[in-house]
Amino acid sequence: MALSSSRLSHAVRVVFRPRVLLLAALAAGGYALYTHPPTGSVGAGELGVRLNRWTGTTTTTGEGLVVVLPGLHELRRYPLQSRLYRPERSARADGEAPFQSIEGLSFGAEVAIRYSLDPGRVDLFARTAPEHIASDRLEPAVQGTIYKVFARYTVREIFSTKRQELQDVLETELKPKLAADGIVLNSVLLGNVDLPADYRAGMEKLLAVELETEKMKYTLELKEKQVKEAELAADAEKVTREKAAQAAASEQIIAAKAQEEAMRHVLPFKQKQIEQRQLEAEAEKTSRIKLAEAAAEARRIEAAGEADSRQRLAEAEVFRLERIGKVQSEQMQRDGELITKHPLLIQKTLADKLSDKVSVIIAPPPAGGGFIGNTLLGTSAVAQQAPAGAE
Questions:
Q1: Which class is domain 83-195?
Q2: pTM for the full predicted model
Q3: Could you give the CA distance from residue 274 to residue 382 in angstroms, rounded to a whole number?
Q4: What phi and psi, each to the nearest 5 degrees, are found at residue 83?
Q5: d(CA 245, CA 243)
Q6: Distance CA 391, CA 383 (A)
Q7: Can you tell me the distance from the alpha carbon of 98 to that of 88, in angstroms, rounded to the nearest whole number?
Q8: pLDDT tens digits for 178-189?
Q9: What is the residue extent of each domain of the chain?
Q10: Which secondary-structure segment (H or E) carries 324?
Q11: Residue-wise pLDDT tens digits, 129-166
Q12: Average pLDDT of 9-28?
């Protein structure tokens, strides 16, 4: 019985040992995948190159995830955007590696090389690290070309007169060299040129003298042109005046001839005009005399008519006054007879006259039946006193 149990335990150990090893292997592989995932990523604007370490082959990939097995593959990312390279060591005349002119003078220049990688020539720099492309491939070609090109020109040409030509020559010579290494040259920019202090001072003086000479030359040329222009203007003005004088003389001759011709026709016409005006004046004089006589006759007739009219009006007025006097006399006679018969009519008439001024009149009747107005005016007392004094 003990023997059988030992055999069973040994069989169990034999069965579980491969499984344990397999699980351990899976766990180790899972941990390795977790710590070192077999993928890589290529960002936007980048070109990925997967290098197989065993076979030495390369595979180009674009943006996205790439399978990269640890120990077998290596993924390198190359930016495709335009980049800038500046040879800093040659930027100053007293720098580490200044440029040389055709005279053998050292100077510095700020050169900017804008470049990018050619996606179709990745195989040329696939085994070069991205950070070493500028130093391993770009810098040697650029330095060799720039030194060679600058050595063809003088410092003065580099500094002032042929800067654009230098840029064009550098681009022309650098493009094929960099293209052979899978690099696209976009542009070459030449910036500040640093000259030695002594040479710069002498060059500035020389340039100032040359500029003054050029200025004097241009001034003299300008003065000469101005003199020629003044001469041409004077000649033109002289010709213009001569032509104008000739034209004016011709016009005066033509005008005189025309005036002479016109006078031959104008004089008879003027004589006829004078005669016509004389006849018109005589006719106007006769007409005015006739008009004056007619006006005088009309005034005499008007005066006679007016005198006759006034005579008739005066007679009519006299007749009217006579008739009115007769009518008034007859009326007064009738009124006297009526008042004699009816004395109270005087009181009524007085009341009618005062009716628009006095609303109510209260007065005692006269004692002797006389006129009521005597009481209002106080004439009755005076009348009574008068007889008493007479007695």
A1: alpha beta
A2: 0.41
A3: 102
A4: -125, 165
A5: 5
A6: 13
A7: 10
A8: 888 778 888 888
A9: 1-35, 83-195
A10: helix 197-341
A11: 666 676 777 788 888 888 888 888 888 788 778 888 88
A12: 60
